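Researcher: Structure for this, please.
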Amino acid sequence: MAAGEYVSVSSQADTEHAELAKERHELATIPAAELDELTHIYVSRGVDQATARAVAEQMTAFNALETHARDELHITDLTAARPIVAAFTSAITFTAGALLPLLLAAVLPVSMIVIGEAAGTILFLGLLGAVGATTGGAQPWKPVMRVVFWGALAMAITAGIGRLVGTSI
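Model: Predicted structure, token format:
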């Protein structure tokens, strides 16, 4: 999972770097058009034309590439792709998420493994949904229901495919 996350987020980072290189080139070769574009962005956000132009000129003079990255491309220090961080986060969360099912498999009697794993995993998903929602400042009911529903559906589909092909999954 971590490797897949790294590859995916690296692709996003590559796209961001390409967009920034293109923007850097446009700022160097067609600065008037880029100033017009920035002005239009501010006008579309509700700023009157004269003020938008003044802001665009000031922001361009201050740091044209950073301004276009933020206001045109929506790339900031907070939103920029970070492949290594994404990979480590994925590895840690998937490892943590596997702990309860692994623990259940170790302690449940063989006759209870299937139902115990399913029930325990759904309960753990609900708990993680509540923790995530609360940590993010949201009310937990909707996130808990969402994660439980989609988790249970994914488990049911996986079990159904296993039954269709005659293999326990």
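Researcher: Any notable elements?
Model: The first helix runs from residue 2 to 29. The CA atoms of residues 128 and 166 lie 32 Å apart.
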